[in-house]
């Protein structure tokens, strides 16, 4: 029973000038173990704030968020995070990056090395162990970041636009990888993205968030992720239902953006 | 010899490289337009030209080329300078270098002075008219005194004889000078010159500019002629044209002045009469002769001048072409190296002295430049371990017993170890000026790094540390390190401690600032990642923040090395007994230009080695820099 339960989470930022920004308002949801949730929304709607709260980097102004009965009040190993730019430690090699978490726990190096090898194999980086990370391409760096996070065996994986900075082809491959890992490990995943297509492809559940104050605007339950596990991702993109959902959400976000712009003018 | 070879070699190198460069331009593909960096690639041959030019200029302007090809020329030019100097006062009597005869010029000048004085007296309303009359009277008779000097009728035979004698001596000198037999020296003179030559150092040795005692036969000729000319001119200028007629007139004037001055109090009148007396005296001491009297002497001087110039031969050309920017002749009989010859040491001398200084037995001021000495390990142990280690050991130090001996116990044995009083093998330890300077920089830098980096990281991460230490660092840092030097040296002593502390102050602030910038510049996502990977605070600092700040820290070290190096040399200037800066300062006091240049060179090299080492370290330790 390690569900992620968010209850009436509010986040209010105060700027030094005294203005307040209501970043999140009454976010309430429950994520069952093994679910893959994608979060979509226009920029500034509080997606990343929500993720940072779940990771424990931020403390919510009010409300609670619990993972398997434990209230989250700080960063922890049971919640792994993958960042947009990878956030790899470029002074370390691929191996050293991947086993970073285990080294911090001071685990037996021999055992660690074996685990690292397994994970590098899973993410498709076999033989790159001793490469310095700054020599890797963007996609490979993201694979390392995934392996580094997964080797710690977290209950919940938080992904903050992990594929945002990749080119289209690499992105597609990485999407398959995420799905593969999700299926094989059965981890609970929250993935934030600004690509509607990606959200639909990967998300078993999709939350569309709205800004000012940041809130969950609409929730979808979708079959595409399970389809994607079996078939080709590109075929799914041409699926009629997929296309209509995509258009629907795009219009929704478009309207939100327009609303903001209108307000500003 | 070597200099000559190098000179020719560099000239060939320059010509060859220029020709090669021209051919390269012709054969090169011309598809690279102006501004394309491709065009600036290569060009080792231009490096050859550049370095050769530098070397050639050095050789030329330091007069090393002259020394190499004409080693005796400076000494000979020095003798020529002696002749020129001796001849000069005689030449000034005649329109040779001047426009007028000296007598003419003096008469003209003194007449004008007297006229001016008269006008001044006439116009002075503070003078009584009877005083005015007396003054003008004296001045007029002074003026009338001049004809008694310039009239040939009054010229005494004795004076004429002396002039004839001097002229004859000059003519004889002119006649003998070109002969190979000149000069005929007596035994005593020969002995004197030989003894002097034995003691004389060569041209360009430290402490000796141009050697003054003649080393060649040509030089000896000029040396002897200069002596003869000196004696002639001394005799001439001792002679006065004071004939009876002049003496009669001047006595009258002086007695008149004396009469007037008797019983005169201080005042305007006394000032005037003193001025007038000065005017009369000036004429008394001036060498005024009748117009035709010195004609023979003039002719003799002119002909000698012609002969000596001819005898100089190629010396004149050498002087003009190989002694640039200042000549030895111009310096007169001191024979000093004027111009760049003085402050720009000859490469040959410089390298010779450098080689000499590098010998451990010579060094500089009894200390070698860079060498080693054998030091017992016990001394090193005694220096490193503090004595209080023995004090905190259990027990008491032994007390002597009745038989008058002391039995060592455990505590006293420990004391022997920590004070270094035990037998041990010896190991070589570097020593010398260069090593001392290096060690000071190294220690100052290390202390700065060891203390500055942790504090800087701490300040970058912690509000309290930043706020608490910021005023301290920011108040002492902007003060130039040398401004601290007098204080630091007073407190910590002129030896190593003071200097190392000063350098520590320099590197400490730089290291703090760079480590702080590195720590506060760590990407938040990396710290977040480390947190969610389960790293503790200490692990985050050690594994993430520290390596992430390494580029800044290493850049800081590079800056600090440069600053430390500059500060050290200046600090060694201020005080101390070893180090490169000390050597330069002492060399400055004794005007050892070669040594000054050597220290400059050594410092440049050491600085370069420091920088290259750090660059290597940077490339090795932070290869990811700029690629993250």
Which features would summarize this protein structure in a list?
heterodimer; A: 265 residues; alpha/beta; Rossmann fold; six-stranded mixed β-sheet; B: mainly alpha; 4 domains
Structure summarized in a few sentences:
The complex is a heterodimer of chains A (265) and B (628). Chain A folds into two domains: 4-78 and 156-264, Rossmann fold (3-Layer(aba) Sandwich), CATH 3.40.50; 88-153, no CATH class.
Order of helices and strands of chain A: EEEHEEEHHHHEHEHEEHHH
Note the overall shape of chain A: globular
| Cα distance spanning the termini of chain A | 48 Å
Low confidence ranges of chain B: none
CATH class of the largest domain in chain A: Alpha Beta
Stretches of chain A where pLDDT falls below 50 for ≥5 residues? Answer: none
List the quaternary state of the chains: heterodimer
Record the SSE blueprint.
The complex is a heterodimer of chains A (265) and B (628).
Chain A: E1 4-14, E2 20-31, E3 36-40, H1 47-55, E4 62-67, E5 70-71, E6 79-82, H2 94-98, H3 100-104, H4 109-122, H5 138-150, E7 156-160, H6 168-185, E8 188-192, H7 196-202, E9 205-210, E10 215-221, H8 224-230, H9 233-237, H10 240-264
Parallel strand pairs in A: 3-8, 3-9, 6-7, 7-8
Antiparallel strand pairs in A: 1-2, 1-4, 4-5, 9-10
Helix pairs in contact in A: 4-5
Chain B: H1 2-27, H2 44-61, H3 64-69, H4 73-91, H5 102-123, H6 129-150, H7 157-176, H8 187-199, H9 217-238, H10 244-261, H11 268-285, H12 295-312, H13 315-322, H14 340-343, H15 347-358, E1 371-376, H16 377-384, H17 388-391, H18 410-418, E2 426-431, H19 433-461, H20 463-476, H21 481-492, H22 496-520, H23 524-532, H24 537-574, H25 580-589, H26 593-621
Antiparallel strand pairs in B: 1-2
Helix pairs in contact in B: 1-2, 4-9, 4-12, 5-6, 5-11, 6-10, 6-11, 7-9, 7-12, 10-11, 15-26, 19-20, 19-22, 19-24, 19-25, 21-22, 21-24, 22-24, 23-24, 24-25, 24-26, 25-26
């Amino acid at each position: 029973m390690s569900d992620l339960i968010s209850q009436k989470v509010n986040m209010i930022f105060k700027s030094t000038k005294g203005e307040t920004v209501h970043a999140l308002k009454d976010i309430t949801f429950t994520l069952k173990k093994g679910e893959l949730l994608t979060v979509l929304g226009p920029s500034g709607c509080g997606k990343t704030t929500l993720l940072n709260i779940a990771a424990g980097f931020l403390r919510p102004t009010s409300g609670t968020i619990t993972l398997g009965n434990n209230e989250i009040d700080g960063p922890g190993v049971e919640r792994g995070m993958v960042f947009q730019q990878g956030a790899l430690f470029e002074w370390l090699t691929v191996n050293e990056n991947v086993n970073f978490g285990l080294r911090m726990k001071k685990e037996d190096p021999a055992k660690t090395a074996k685990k690292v090898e397994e994970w590098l194999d899973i993410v498709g980086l076999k033989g790159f162990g001793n490469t310095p990370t700054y020599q890797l391409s963007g996609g490979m760096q993201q694979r390392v970041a995934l392996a580094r996070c997964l080797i710690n065996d977290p209950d919940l994986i938080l992904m903050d636009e992990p594929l945002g900075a990749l080119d289209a082809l690499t992105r597609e491959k990485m999407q398959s990888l995420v799905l593969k890992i999700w299926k094989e490990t059965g981890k609970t995943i929250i993935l934030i993205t600004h690509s509607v297509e990606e959200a639909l492809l990967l998300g078993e559940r999709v939350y569309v968030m709205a800004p000012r104050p940041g809130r969950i605007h609409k929730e979808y339950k979708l079959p595409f992720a399970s389809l994607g596990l079996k078939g080709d991702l590109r075929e799914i993109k041409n699926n009629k239902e997929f296309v209509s959902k995509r258009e629907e959400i795009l219009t929704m976000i478009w309207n939100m953006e327009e609303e903001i712009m209108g307000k500003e003018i | 010899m070597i200099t000559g070879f190098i000179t020719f070699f560099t000239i060939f190198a320059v010509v060859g490289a220029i020709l090669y460069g021209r051919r390269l331009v012709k054969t090169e593909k011309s598809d690279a337009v102006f501004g394309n960096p491709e065009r600036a690639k290569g060009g080792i041959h231009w490096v050859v030209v550049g370095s050769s030019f530098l070397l050639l200029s050095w050789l030329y302007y330091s007069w090393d080329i002259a020394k190499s090809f004409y080693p005796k020329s400076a000494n000979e030019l020095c003798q020529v300078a002696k002749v020129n100097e001796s001849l000069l006062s005689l030449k000034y009597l005649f329109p040779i270098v001047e426009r007028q005869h000296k007598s003419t010029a003096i008469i003209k000048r003194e007449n004008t002075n007297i006229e001016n004085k008269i006008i001044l007296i006439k116009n002075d309303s503070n003078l009584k008219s009877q005083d005015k009359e007396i003054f003008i009277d004296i001045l007029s008779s002074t003026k009338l005194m001049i004809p008694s000097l310039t009239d040939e009728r009054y010229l005494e035979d004795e004076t004429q004889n002396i002039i004839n004698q001097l002229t004859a001596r000059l003519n004889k000198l002119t006649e003998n000078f070109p002969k190979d037999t000149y000069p005929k020296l007596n035994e005593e003179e020969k002995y004197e010159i030989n003894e002097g030559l034995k003691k004389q150092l060569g041209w360009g040795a430290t402490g000796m500019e141009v050697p003054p005692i003649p080393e060649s036969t040509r030089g000896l000729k000029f040396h002897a002629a200069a002596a003869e000319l000196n004696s002639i001119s001394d005799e001439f200028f001792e002679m006065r044209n004071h004939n009876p007629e002049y003496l009669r007139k001047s006595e009258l004037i002086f007695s008149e002045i004396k009469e007037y001055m008797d019983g005169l109090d201080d005042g305007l009148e006394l000032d005037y009469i003193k001025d007038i007396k000065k005017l009369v005296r000036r004429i008394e001491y001036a060498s005024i002769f009748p117009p035709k009297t010195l004609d023979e002497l003039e002719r003799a001087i002119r002909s000698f001048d012609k002969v000596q110039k001819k005898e100089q031969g190629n010396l004149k050309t050498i002087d003009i072409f190989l002694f640039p920017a200042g000549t030895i002749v111009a310096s007169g009989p001191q024979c000093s190296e004027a111009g760049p010859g003085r402050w720009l040491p000859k490469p040959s001398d410089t390298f010779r002295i450098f080689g000499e200084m590098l010998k451990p037995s010579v060094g500089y001021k009894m200390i070698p430049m860079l060498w080693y000495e054998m030091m017992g390990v016990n001394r090193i142990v005694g220096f490193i371990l503090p004595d209080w280690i023995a004090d905190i050991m259990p027990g008491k130090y032994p007390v002597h017993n009745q038989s008058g001996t002391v039995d060592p116990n455990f505590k006293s044995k420990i004391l022997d170890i920590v004070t270094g009083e035990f037998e041990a093998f010896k190991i070589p330890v570097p020593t010398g000026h260069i090593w001392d300077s290096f060690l000071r920089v190294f220690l100052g830098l290390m202390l700065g790094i060891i203390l500055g980096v942790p504090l800087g990281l701490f300040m970058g991460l912690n509000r309290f540390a930043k706020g608490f230490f910021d005023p301290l660092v920011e108040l002492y840092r902007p003060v130039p390190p040398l401004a601290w030097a007098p204080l630091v040296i007073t407190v910590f002593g002129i030896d190593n401690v003071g200097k190392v502390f000063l350098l520590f102050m320099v590197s400490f602030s730089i290291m703090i600032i760079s480590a702080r910038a590195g720590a506060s510049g760590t990407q938040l996502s990396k710290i977040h990642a480390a947190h969610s990977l389960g790293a503790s605070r200490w692990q985050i600092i050690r594994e993430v923040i520290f390596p992430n700040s390494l580029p800044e820290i290493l850049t800081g070290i590079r800056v600090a090395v440069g600053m430390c190096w500059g500060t050290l040399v200046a600090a060694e200037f201020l005080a101390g007994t070893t180090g490169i800066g000390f050597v330069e300062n002492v060399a400055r006091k004794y005007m050892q230009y070669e040594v000054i240049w050597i220290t400059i060179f050594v410092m440049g090299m050491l600085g370069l080695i420091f920088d290259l080492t750090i660059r290597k370290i940077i490339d090795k330790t932070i290869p990811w820099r700029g690629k993250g």
